[in-house]
Amino acid sequence: MSDTVNKFYLTTPIYYVNARPHIGHAYSTIVCDVIARRKRLLGDDVWFLTGTDEHGQKIERSANAANKTPQQFADDVSAEFHHLWQRMGLTNDDYIRTTEDRHKRGVQHLFSLLQQRGFIYKGTYTGQYCVSDEAYVEGPAGVVCPDCGRVTETVSEENYFFKLSAFESTLLKFYEENPDFIRPEKIRNEVMSFVRSGLKDLSVSRTSFNWGIPVPGDEKHVVYVWLDALANYITAIGYGSSDPADQAKFAKYWPAELHLIGKEISRFHCVYWPAFLLAAGLPLPKAVVANGWLLFEESKMSKSRGNVVRAETIMEAFGALKPELPKEEQDLFGADVLRYFLLREIPFGQDGSFSFDALLTRYNADLANGYGNLVSRTLTMIQKYCDGIVPADRTGLTSAHSLKAVYGPEEEFHTRCNRYEFSRAIEVLWIGVGIADGELSAQSPWKLAADLSKKDLLDKILYEAADHIRIITALLYPVMPYATAKVWAQLGLGDIHEAALKGELKNLEWGGLQPGTKLGELGPIFPRADKEIITRMSEIEQKNAPAAVAEAPAAVKAEPKPEVKAEAKPAAPAPAKPAEPAPAAVAAPATPTAPAPVAEAAPADNTITIDDFAKVELRVAQIKVAERIPKADKLLRLEVDLGYETRQILSGIAEWYAPEELIGRRIVVITNLAPRKMRGLESHGMLLAASDGDHGRPVLATFGEEIALGSRLK
Ligand code: ME8
User: Rounded to the nearest 10 degrees, how much is the dihedral formed by the CA atoms of 204, 207, 208, 211?
Assistant: First the structure.
């Protein structure tokens, strides 16, 4: 490996502050951290950036719904992301927020430059806009966003436009000449066919809301959030600053070697961003690499679906396996378990399922029984048979069974990592764990220990096993920095983080472990976890689920429909709970009528008081998304717009309504029903419907006149 110092600037997406961090966000950030640590140990001058994306209509609306100013709202959620990355021990060198002055200044500088260079002009736009994705969509009024499936809104504004159309052929030529610019191949093909189908100029300002960076010299416009957000990759390293230190930093680190993103934002990073940079006369990043989606219970883990798992849950549950550690170290240990799982379990670039079950299985099989057991048995024997001192190999034997004759993982490990094949890279190390374990079992050093004449052979076997562990541990360091540090110390090698910085974790020759090294204090690294940890994780998740709102009064609770109820089961093995109500399906009786005069006397059995009725919050909503749920014949997943927020509701009406016929309908939603999970998805509310005929066909309550979303029925 070359010793010349290369710089390596890598970035994660900056995350929207309208959602709390979950392990989907952690996944991309962890992958970058692994890459950053590996590049550092190879001697590169690394700059690792992450941060939060805080402007736009979506954030403004979420802040309103939370009764906070957009800035306060952004401050709170951004701090959560920042704090979580620190708790997990991530090594980002900077954390950019798009509400920071350094960013605003850089964006305004970029906008003005694009104007001066003739790539931004003023015009009028009328068309469809997806607020959730902050993107324009081709098609007639009401067309559904092709990315997220939500209904678009019609906007008509005087806007600034970017001449994206001018870059069609330049971009295609660039992709052809730089086949590694977009990874994986599938995404590259999608991006190229998108560009080939023709690029239209892009509106890059908005006047319909204020929460953004003002267009310089025309402050009633704010800069389009994607132009604002993408620019973070340059503003964070000094673009647009007149300070010479910032300018030097920018000159040093730009262009980035890697933008790591989730696959759904490829178009923004592979088409818009390079076009903005070309227009500004700036060099293009070397690579945009997309991770696949982390799925939970078969669909993409995301806030709008409510099927999220948080990294804190895993840190807490696995951290508890090490009660002897201070809390910060328990967190780091749990973070290592998550890091290992995500990189090993999911072939990078593909979608992959997360489950508590799979996490536990990997932990026990690979870490407790695999690597952890190898370390423990080897070092315990050195302790016992060699007084805790690494023995020397005095045999001079290089038999075919010798570990070094059969195994050399370093080159292949790095090659795989360079190709983003992290799972295969780790697999290479576990082949080594298997070989070393097999050698120990075959040679049975504990039997040799009884025979003094076999001492040289015993020492050789133990030395080789320990040296082997050293090599695997050094390579594994970027993946599990906490646990490998413990193994390193037990091997008597001191501080692994220092060793990484000094370049001692590369060029791992066999024999690098000095005989005579005194082992550190021994102790189990990966205690076995039992199945209860699954329940524990479910409990922690449930405890942290959004606070339930007032229980719906019995009078309007859905009639439990046996066939629908069969669908309702908890996301993961969960603690015993009271019986769950049927999914938000059909409320019977039909729409309540105007309240009757309240009698003084106690109500009869089947009547309710006006106060009872007032407890039920009924509001007008519009169905924006309706889709079937895999393997659930009776359930539909709906996203309904209440005007002030969008909610996910699961409804047992799939046998009676096709998803397409529901989109755009204005319906009645019971909004203060406690949220609950079905099929791993959260349902937050219930649709109001009449139950018709013998079969109880649900007929949705709807309106014959114009009515504003969110209006209360009373
Ligand atoms: O898109 N599986 O922010 P965002 C895998 N602000 N990765 C996931 C994931 C999942 N289920 N969920 C989230 C934005 N991610 C913009 C980006 S960049 C200039 C602006 C990760 O909060 C993945 O990296 O929606 C995805 O691209 C990113 O979080 C989206 O985060």
Answer: 80
Mutation pick for ligand 1 pocket among 15, 80, 228, 291 (CB with most ligand atoms within 8 Å): 15
One-character DSSP codes across 170-230: HHHHHHHH-TTSEESHHHHHHHHHHHHT----EE-EESS---SPEETTEEEEEE-HHHHHH
Whether the ω angle into residue 562 lies within 30 degrees of 0, i.e. cis, is: no
CATH code of the domain containing 166 = 3.40.50.620
Domain annotation covers residue 253? yes
pTM here? 0.78
In a domain, 309, yes or no: no
**Cα(105)–Cα(179) distance, rounded to whole angstroms?**
34
> By the 8 A CB rule, do 672 and 552 touch?
yes
If one counts every other C-beta atom within 10 angstroms of the C-beta of residue 677, the result is: 23
Q: Which domain holds residue 422?
A: 370-528
How far apart are the CA of 442 and the centre of ligand 1, in A?
A: 48
Looking up tokens 């006047």, which residue turns up?
207
* Ligand 1 geometric centre to CA of 187 (Å): 16
The residue behind tokens 């939060």 is 52
Q: How do 352-354 and 294-296 pair as beta strands?
A: parallel
CA of 398 to the centre of ligand 1 (A): 51
Per-residue pLDDT tens for 565-610? 222 222 232 222 223 223 333 222 222 222 222 333 333 456 776 7
Integer Cα distance of 360 and 44 in angstroms: 35
Q: Pairing between strand 202-203 and 214-215?
A: unpaired
Mean pLDDT throughout 188-194? 98
pLDDT tens-digit series, residues 399-440: 544 566 566 789 999 999 999 999 999 999 999 999 999 999
